[in-house]
Each structure stands twice: as structure tokens, then as C-alpha cells.
Amino acid sequence: MLTAAILMGALPGEAARATSHYVPIDDYLARHPEQQALMADFSTRVQSPAMPLSASPRRTLRIAVIYPGLQSSDYWRRSLSSFEARLEQLRIPYDLKTFMSRPSVDVDLQARQLTTALQWRPDYLVFTLNAVPHLRMIERVLALGSPRLILQNITTPLIDWEADPPFMYVGFDHVQGTRLIADWMLERAGHRGKYLMLYFSPGYVSRMRGGTFADEAARYPKVEEVDAYYTDGDPDKAYRATLKTLQEHPDLKMIFASSTDVALGALRALRETDRMDVLLNGWGGGASELEALQDGGLDVTAMRINDENGIAMAEAIRMALIGQATRVPDIFAGDIALITRDTPPEEIERLERRAFRLSGDGETD
Q1: In angstroms, rounded to a whole number, what is the distance separating the alpha carbons of residues 196 and 245?
Q2: pLDDT digit string (tens) for 50-94?
Q3: What does the pLDDT read at residue 103?
Q4: Is the domain 22-172+305-334 a CATH 2.30.40.10 member?
Q5: Domain 175-304 classified CATH 3.40.50.2300?
Q6: pLDDT confidence of residue 47
Q7: pLDDT tens, 262-320?
């Protein structure tokens, strides 16, 4: 059953906290100017070939990864692949326990996975923040003081955790990527027309992606949001929401989709109704999105230089092993490139080689 979206500013209780107490990167750097040099140095490490450890650690590291990776987007799979590849290049001995689930709707399962992971007593835990219950899970880990926590897919620190932060925030800036998409779509639409908002689930990603697009669209009085839905990242929900909106608003001009699976669900509806004139975006630029762009299904996406976040996690662990944990920046935000239906194939191929250089489909360091 479809869930109509509530206004993002009206989220109750913990949901409001999850979306309003983050600090954008520029603001965080203004509050912590020493981070600028750390981030620049670390970015150079990520872009450079691996420098293996000169001496092996005294014991094998335990690393637990809890990912919402059961979805069409290959972001999580590639992140894990590039993470492991870089650990091996750095000659860091490790044992890895990986837990996968569907996004958002498997929060109870993720809680059980977290309990199992902590019982294993890992040295590092890689987790994410999206749904509201993740806040309580993360705070449980922070309160324990161990393992070291890497929060992936979030690059905007939470004010409430500033005194006791995770080891690292790592990922790609949702706001930056969404603004690239919004600028292109709104200009292509002539800064006018109706659009459908397809959020992910209530929480961080919806606010940072869908909320940012809505803010950008609101700058133009002739652009109108006619409907909005939370989809829980379910392509079938996105498909049904799109069909319903097309029926009620045959003059629909644009659809903003907050994730790959959401975009592919909306695309199925557009194709079935022969409404490929409606502008539709992807988010992430993984293999399924690139295929949909090349065959004319999607119009635009923000392509993450995907493997950078896996490499960044491995490099942060290396620095901690050699006594440089204080030199690890609080945030690593990987590069993002705009790809549209007009981008030349050779440029897309170049970006693919760069984005997937350790996870396959590209060159290695």
C-alpha cells in the first residue's frame, strides 16, 4: 500500500532529530577548520596507489559490515569489493563478517544483525544511517566505546554526537549530487511544470535527496509538486505511485526519484504508459542506471566515483594501525559527476574506469 509523504519539516520526534541536527560539510569545516588540511591529505591518499604496511600487524583485524545491500543499486556491493581489494593491497590481515538486508524495511533484522556482529567483538563496524531506528542502534555502539564505528553513506555529522563521534563518516554528499540533478532537470523543463516526488523512506536519505530537490524546485514559482510518496526503496511502490500520478496529472513534467530502485520502478510505469517525455533521474550512477541512461530510459544521474568510499575506509584503518588515527579526518566525501542523456559514451566509459577501478569493470591501482 502506498504511503503518502508528510512534509519533511513536520517529521515528529526522533525523525525530526534525524534530519535537522546534521551539519553540512561546509558548516562543519567552519566549526572545525583543522579538518580542511586533514581532508585534503586523506583525499590524496585515496586517489594514490596503495602503500602496503611495512610490518604486519600482531593479529588479524575483525571487521563487521552491516549493509542494506539487497537492492538493484550495486553501490553497496562495489563498496565492499573495493574495501576488501584495498585492504589486500595494503597487506592488512582481516576477518570479515558481512550482513545484508533490504533497505529500510528490514530495520528489525538489522538490529538483530547488529547484536550478532557485536557479540563477535569486531575491531571495526561499518554501518549506515537512514531510518530513524538506526539512531538508537548507533548510539548504543558509541556508548560502548568499541568497536571503532565507520558510518557509511552519510557525510553530514550529527550535532548530538560531536563530543563522541564515530571514527569516520564516509560516502558521497547527497546534497551536492541532488543539486547537480536539480539544476539540470529544472533547466531542461524551462523552470516550469508539475513534478512527482518519490522519496525513499522517512529519514536521512529522503531529507537529503528529496528534501534538497524540493528546496531547489521551490525557488521557481511555476514549478509545482503535485504528489509525493514514501516508497521504502521498493520499485513496485514507485511504479504504482507513478501510474496513479500520471492518471491524475497527465501534464506531469518531471519525476524526482531518490534511489536507483525507485527510479527503475518509475521508469517501468513511464514505459507502460508511453510517457517517456517525462523527465526522470537516477541517483548513484551504478551499472543498472548507466544501462537505463544509454537506452534512453533515464535522463540524468549523479554518478558516485563509487570505489573511493571503500578505499577510504581501508586507508583510515591503515592509518590507525600505524598510529595515525588522529590524522584520519572526521569526514570523507567522494567525488560525484553529473551524467545526462547527452553525455558522450567515451566520457561515460572514462568515468566508469575511474569509479569502478577496484570493484571490477575497470583498472586497478
Answers
A1: 7
A2: 999 999 888 999 999 998 767 777 899 999 999 999 999 999 999
A3: 66
A4: no
A5: yes
A6: 95
A7: 999 999 999 999 999 999 999 999 999 999 999 999 999 999 999 999 999 999 999 99
Angle subtended at Cα 63 by Cα 60 and Cα 64, rounded to the nearest 5 degrees: 150
CATH 3.40.50.2300 domain locations along the chain: 22-172+305-334, 175-304
C-alpha distances (whole Å) from 4 to each of 33, 208, 239 are 41, 18, 14
pTM beyond 0.85: yes
The predicted pLDDT at position 145 comes to 82
